[in-house]
Amino acid sequence: MPPDVSQLPLVGGHPALDLVNTLERGGTSPHDFLSDTSALLRWSVLVGTISDVEAEQVDRAWRDEPAAAHAGLAAVRDIREGLYLVLRAAIIDADGGTADDLVAAGAALVALHQRWSGAVARARFVLDSSRVRLAYDTVPAMLVPDRIAEAAYDVMLTADLTRVRRCPVLEGGCGWLFLDRSRNGSRRWCRMADCGNVVKARRLTERRRAARPSGSEAVGEGVPVRAVMPSRDAQQTFAKAL
Ligand SMILES: [Zn+2]
């Protein structure tokens, strides 16, 4: 049974990056955590783009108008794909991206601007004590995609896109995107507790295996299995040294 969206760790460091991570890419059958409008609603609360109260309002609006619910999901998926293309171009660009990547990103920016323009057109100005803000709550059926469009706008215009990283797949990472907010910009893994430690443990096993004397491959030759399995303490000590 595929994992539920509520089990999806939020590692992006920004709702817009967490949105991109709701679709697994590559492989023969990529899993979409935003599988239906119900999953989208739960994820929106999880990531904080709407509140519990707003989720109830959206749920009512979507029940009254199922077509609007599906339009909302399609809009969010559209924004997700556009964001992915833009962020991918930003990541690739550091290593010299191709012209096709930049053309795709440019087209995605046009589509993202249209989504954001639609959201702003539905928004209203609200006087909030010391300042005026945009409130995207005039059309409950469109609240979810409008808040996502706002998040996309926010990350593209305020984040340092050279700090967008991809958890390195070729080194055993998961491929999720995240915003590196570390002081020196050297973060490599989406979450050290997950991918980083898994990869380090795997490397440790590989190094131990490579360090074994020749002829010790077969357990039947009298070499205890435990001899090639580091103790928990040794594993931790080694991991710290990496
Ligand atoms: Zn990862």
Strand order of the largest sheet: 1-2
> Strand share of the residues?
5-15%
Ends distance:
36 Å
Pattern of helices and strands: HHHHHEEHEEHH
Structural category: mainly alpha
Low-confidence stretches: 216-242
Mean pLDDT metric? 83
* Small ligands present: zinc ion
- Given the structure, what is the number of helices? 8
How many domains comprise the coordinates? 2
CATH architectural type of the largest domain: Orthogonal Bundle
Relative helix content: 40-55%
The CATH topology label of the largest domain is Jann2411-like fold
Q: What's the total count of β strands? A: 4
Q: How would a textbook summarize the main sheet?
A: 2 strands, antiparallel
Question: Which shape, going by the Cα principal axes?
Answer: globular
InterPro entries: ABATE, ABATE_dom_sf, Znf_CGNR
Protein name: Zinc finger CGNR domain-containing protein
Pfam families: ABATE (PF07336), zf-CGNR (PF11706)
Domain Zinc finger CGNR: 163-208
